[in-house]
Amino acid sequence: MDITVELPADPQRLVTASRVIYRRGRLASRTLGVFAIVLGAGLLATVLLADGDGFELLLGAAMAFLGVALFRRYDRAIALGVARRPVYAHGGCTVRLTDAEISVTYPLASLHLAWPAISKVVNTHGLWLFHSGWPVALALPAASLGPTQAEELGAFLSERALLPAAA
Q: What pTM value is reported for the model?
């Protein structure tokens, strides 16, 4: 196998990949945010309807503020992660998949991973996610591969037992 893919500089690709990778965190953050907002609004309603004291007013306002912060935390974390990526990663890159390794080459740096360093590969939401343990080492857009390249990659990964078993 020898597949080479050119990926142009595209910050939105990084945002999309980050959202796919950390989607469970988004669900938790948004759920807790909505819960805190509802709780804060309930406390504020108690103050307004039942002549609550200043403590309930302060607690309700704090809970509502915390809920909004939790709700927005995920999107801010993704935006900061993309903005704070290393200088070398601001340009486009070349991804090369061979029988021996995965290599990602930027104009100022490169990364080489031998296949034994890859623990699993998942094809989800239009991305091939190459995991090295828990973290994702590479997110390759599926659309960047041609049909024959995608078939070749799928066969190679199946042969190495890196694709999860079909449910």
A: 0.69
